[in-house]
Amino acid sequence: MATKKINFCKLADLRIRLGLTQAEFWNRYGVKQSAASRYERDDDPVHVPHGVAMLIWLHQIGELTEEQLDRAVAATKSVVRTRPDLTGAMLKPRSTRSDKGKPAKRRGIRRD
């Protein structure tokens, strides 16, 4: 069985193809509009938190029903609200760029 692939660099295209507004699409996954706008505007998919990406993927390939998705989002919100110590690093997107917008310095063997 072939696995459906989702291009996380083109989430706006997926949303539009589904005929959903930005608020309708992202609210399904527990994402606020301000973050949704960043995710769709950014060309770097690592900015979408792993948990959100997993929910989108599982839902889009049919492994999560609407009811299961609602429960997963509610559970995630509950954990975020009650245990920020567990979720701070998990929900923070990984970035391949430094804070100044430049590529992060690579550490390793220097080749001259």
Structure overview:
- With 112 residues, this protein is an all-alpha fold.
- It has one domain (8-91).
- 52% of the residues lie in helices and 0% in strands.
- The protein has helices spanning 11-17, 22-27, 33-41, 50-60, 66-82, 84-91.
- The termini are far apart.
How would you sum up this structure in a few lines?
The protein has 112 residues and is mainly alpha-helical.
C-alpha Rg (nearest Å) = 16 Å
Number of strands: 0
Report, as a whole number of angstroms, the end-to-end distance: 47 Å
Tell me about the largest β-sheet: none
Helix percent band = 40-55%
Strand content: under 5%
* SSE topology string: HHHHHH
- Report the uncertain regions: 105-112
Structural class: mainly alpha
Q: What shape does the CA trace take?
A: globular
Separate helix tally: 6
Number of domains: 1
Q: Mean pLDDT, rounded to whole units?
A: 75
Question: What topology emerges from the helices and strands here?
Answer:
Layout: H1 11-17, H2 22-27, H3 33-41, H4 50-60, H5 66-82, H6 84-91
